[in-house]
Design goal:
The protein is mainly α and 143 residues long. The chain contains 7 helices and no strands. The protein has one domain: Orthogonal Bundle (Tetracycline Repressor, domain 2), CATH 1.10.357.10. It is elongated and about 50 Å long.
Length: 143
């Protein structure tokens, strides 16, 4: 059996994460199984397990990918802090309102992720995102 190239592996991971967004949004994190993700991605369960050890790891990777798309204004720009806050806030709201990964992942984290021991890493990721936003805002206010 031939090994996949880095590009092929990345394409598989992206397909799994795309499928995860759809499945977690439809079924919720608690009731989704790795087999559901594999079926939706059109790959074997072994392919999913080859990239991720469990559904929580899939969900964390999905968060990383989506949140990496959030545009953060340059805090060191020579513009008033209020302008930076306005740009950051409007940009975040735009990404939350426009259909896309950011919107779907936020909906999953806030509406489809039940409080449980299993989901604790996801709840911590959600809290981290909130705290990062708060710290960003406070830094601008204190400038």
């Amino acid at each position: 059996m031939t090994r996949k190239t880095k590009e092929e592996s990345q394409k598989t991971r992206d397909g799994i994460l795309d499928a995860a967004e759809r499945v977690f949004l439809e079924k919720g994190v608690g009731t989704t199984a790795m087999a559901d993700l594999a079926d939706a991605a059109g790959v074997s369960r072994g392919a999913v397990y080859g990239h991720y050890k469990n559904k929580i790891e899939v969900c964390l990777a999905m968060c990383d990918r989506a949140f990496g798309q959030i545009e953060v204004p340059d805090e060191n720009a020579r513009v008033p802090a209020l302008d930076i806050l306005l740009r950051a806030g409007m940009g975040f709201l735009r990404q939350c309102c426009e259909p896309g990964s950011v919107q779907r992942v936020l909906e999953i984290l806030y509406l489809k992720c039940e409080r449980s021991d299993e989901n604790e890493p996801l709840l911590r990721r959600r809290e981290l995102l909130e705290k990062q936003g708060q710290r960003f805002g406070l830094r601008q206010i204190r400038r």
